[in-house]
Amino acid sequence: MALLMFVIRRMFRAILTLLLVVTFAFVFLRLAGDPLLVLLPENTDAAVVEIFRARWGLDRPLPVQYAYYLLNVLQGDFGQLYSDGRSALDVVLMAVPKTLQLGGAALAIAILIGIPAGTIAAVYRNSIVDRSLMMLAVIGHSMPTFFVAILAILLFSLTLRWLPSSGSATWLHLLMPAMTLGFWLAASIARITRSAVLDVLVRPYMRTARAKGIPLFRRVVTHALPNAAIPIVTIVGMIAGHMVAGAVIVETVFAWPGIGRLTVTSVGARELVVVQTIVLLVSAAMVTINLLVDISYAALDPRIREARS
Amino acid sequence: MSVAQPDATPAVRIGSALDGEHAVSSLPSLFAGPVPFSIHLSIAFLAAIVLAGVFAPMLAPWGYDAQDLAARLQGPGILGGANKHLLGTDELGRDILTRLLFAIRTSLVTALVGTLIAALIGTTLGSTAALRKGIVGEALMMLADVQASIPFLLFAIAVLGFVGSSMPVLMIIIGLNGWDTYARLARGLVLATAEEPYVEASRLIGASKLRTFLRDILPNILGVLVVQMTLNFPGAILLESGLSFLGIGVQPPLTSLGLMVGAGREYLLYAWWMSVFPGLVLLATTMSVSLLGDWLRDRLDPRLAGQ
Known about the structure:
The structure holds 2 protein chains of 2 kinds.
Chain A: H1 2-31, H2 35-39, H3 46-55, H4 62-74, H5 88-123, H6 128-141, H7 145-159, H8 171-201, H9 204-211, H10 216-233, H11 236-253, H12 259-268, H13 272-300, H14 302-308
Helix pairs in contact in A: 1-13, 5-6, 5-8, 5-13, 6-8, 7-8, 7-11, 8-10, 8-11, 9-10, 11-12, 11-13, 12-13, 13-14
Chain B: H1 10-19, H2 27-30, H3 37-54, H4 56-59, H5 96-131, H6 135-148, H7 152-163, H8 167-177, H9 179-193, H10 197-204, H11 209-245, H12 257-264, H13 273-300
Helix pairs in contact in B: 3-5, 3-13, 5-6, 5-8, 5-9, 5-11, 5-12, 5-13, 6-9, 7-8, 9-11, 10-11, 11-12, 11-13, 12-13
């Protein structure tokens, strides 16, 4: 029962968040100027402008327009591009697979580096290894990804001529963007892993395992890591946020045709509907991820439900 | 109220708070004891960067906008050669070192104002949430959760790209970015500090909520908030430089570190110095502030280490 109440409260909050995002997108559309002036040729007759205004419902009061906008978005109608009338949703969805490909590869790199690094730092707490790893993590997280990307291009593309600097034709093209994004994400994963494993290492069952004579490596891998997994998994939502922010920069530098680059090129082309659609879809994805993480966490750990009620 | 007002100085109050369960330390005491070499280095570098930014107009060897088309894309003089431009020139023959000094200035000021805005909004809302429980507090903390679950960079790009970028808008955007961290922190700190006997005493003698907050609670939580500002500062500077790199942050004729790296991107093959020098300064700055902030936090509360 407590779980059900928790789920309902969280879903209510998620819906409210999305409503705020949609409202913001609408208000913002109005702030950006009269859509008709962008759509119609410059010398259009005032009477013609009024006809279009009436046809697209732009003559109605703002609350009514807002209601229509909300209804359209709920029905999956995000509007059309100014330039060629394509559906904004289609344009955005076409870029999604490339971003997922880059994000997936980056996440794999981040996990493969971050979790062992964080675990080793925790096991050898306060040693020189721990200090060096955590210093690397602090440095890694505070590095400007666009500059790292430029250094990578300078070294691997322009000097050594090993890797292509832009595009997405082959898997070689994926290497540099995925590494840039992956190393950056690895820094946060390493720090979270370290503190999660530290919490677990002092538990009585770890002492028991040690008393039974289980070697250190097996103790850590079979006893500590599974128990530290839950706090690590809960930052998936945060990682998703980092990934979106990182993807915008990394995709732009390496000309990787995903959502991040589409955002930047659409701003340049003044295709407001595309940017709006991306903001709405990415927000919906992030809110859903956070909701699922919260619910699964609460389902696994009853203390969470009570603490937040 | 002058009779009843405890006449302890803030320092004494901080001392008494130190004994409490929720230890809150003053900033100077953080530097007592051994300081690692990396922190010395960070502080020295940051001091140099701040001085470079403050005295940019006096230090700059050339005019900020002085073009010399005959000396376009010249390599850095520090690498040898008879070049008068120590760090080289850009595509219009402008001196990179001069522009770098001004870029440091713009980047630092933008990030600093952004950080202050975030701290101000976050502390105000977080403290309000702590002092006014019930629907107001709930709503405020929910707003902080909303902030954390949306892709803020996309919003920032949308606003700056379509409403237009200017320094005030950019600073507000950076300020809106991190406020939720301060709100959660301030709420927790205010709730903990409100339990302290001296706050109880202040309340009992009839001080208003606002007065108690400003005179008794705020001075004691300020240290932690300042450390949090150090931790958030790299994020602010990275947001500004990232947006400027994309061309929607700081606008010419002003320049910033990110804008310089972005401008040099197209000349990487012929003039790597255009991107690399500002990039290195940016990298060293964010690293130094991060290391310093991380070390301050560990000093402030060992329990927070590694989080």
